[in-house]
């Protein structure tokens, strides 16, 4: 997992952490970069703080994938294997943060948040994704 060094062009990258094999989802809050991964047979969401410290926020998932930050103090994570979207508080530094069941979907992989002013209606759901008024989102 890599991030930019300040003052350089947007392309050079430096490692944020080396404590994982792969990352499936990534989201950034004001102070933490979150990523989802499967390590040692369990699914987790880790956070990398500004000082480079890595901490497991959630370690009770099966196959965490997409992540999204709500712009306030909540992270949403799709757990593909359990068909659920969970949320957990991102504003407090704690390991094993409490999970709240947010939605049940068929094998969710990604998460996106829209503001209340964004008018989106789900008319069909297919392998190709969500459709809005005949156009794919």
- Large-scale geometry: globular
Mean of pLDDT: 77
* CA-atom Rg in angstroms: 16 Å
**Strand/helix succession:** EEEEEEEEEEEEE
Classify the secondary structure makeup into a structural class.
Answer: mainly beta
How would you describe what is shown here?
- This protein has 137 residues and is mainly β.
- The chain is 0% helix and 47% strand.
- The protein is built from no helices and 13 strands.
- It has strands at residues 2-3, 14-15, 25-28, 32-39, 42-49, 54-61, 64-69, 74-79, 84-89, 100-104, 124-126, 129-132, 135-136.
- The chain has a four-stranded antiparallel sheet, with no helix packed on it. The protein has a four-stranded antiparallel sheet with strand order 7-8-9-10, with no helix packed on it.
- The radius of gyration is 16 Å and the shape is globular.
- 23% of the residues are buried.
- Residues 120-137 have low confidence and may be disordered.
Describe, in short, the structure shown.
With 137 residues, the chain is an all-beta fold. The chain has no helices and 13 strands.
Features:
globular, disordered C terminus, mainly beta, four-stranded antiparallel β-sheet, 137 residues, 13 strands
Strand and helix layout:
Blueprint: E1 2-3, E2 14-15, E3 25-28, E4 32-39, E5 42-49, E6 54-61, E7 64-69, E8 74-79, E9 84-89, E10 100-104, E11 124-126, E12 129-132, E13 135-136
Antiparallel strand pairs: 1-2, 3-4, 4-5, 5-6, 7-8, 8-9, 9-10, 11-12, 12-13
